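Work Package 3 (structural annotation) set out to generate three-dimensional models for the target panel prioritized at the project kickoff. During this period the team completed the workflow that converts sequence records into discrete structure tokens, so that structures can be stored uniformly alongside our sequence database. As a representative example, we reproduce one entry of 212 residues exactly as it appears in the project archive.
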Amino acid sequence: MSTASDARFWDRSSRRYARSAIADQLGYERTLERTRAHLRPTDDVLELGCGTGTTALRLASGVQSYLATDLSRGMIAIAEDKLAAEPVPALSFRTATAEELVHDEGRFDVVLGFNYLHLVRDVPGTLRGIHTLLKPAGLFISKTPCLGDMNPLIRLLLLPAMRAVGQAPHVNSFDTSALDQLITGAGFDILALETHASRGRDRRPYIVARRR
């Protein structure tokens, strides 16, 4: 399995993903609200793992520039169709991973990664790359499902079985404490750790971290 196979999985899933409803709309709106509070009109923003662009379209009008990326060409094609129907001058989409953006070193004031870190192949390497992409004291804002905090049957039985038949992508299993350590170990200071779910126990910490 490789990043290329992950891209193929998301390409196959892109239309179904685009049709799916947000599971917790109130929690999602809270995430958008908190994120907007950290964005300035002069900011250059990068979103990694943007999917079909829903979040980018909601946030991009409030900043100077907003580059939204995803490793799946299928996802980006849908996002570009949305942008054509609802133009936002500051927003552009690109098929890319964090590792492919090396020439943008020190370009961004804010990097966003929502439902993203648990899907990358090399979390420490990706976090170091994000650190490099940010300007000094830039912000990395993420919201990440932590499988290590969930029912062990999901990560030990269900997900491996689904991956074996091509019904799930690569997924990392870590808990909130381990995620915190990964982010701080990559050269960030944690400014905020929040949960935004409107119901039930939230195992997707929203973290705001500043580049040291």
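Residues 15 and 75 are 8 Å apart (CA to CA).
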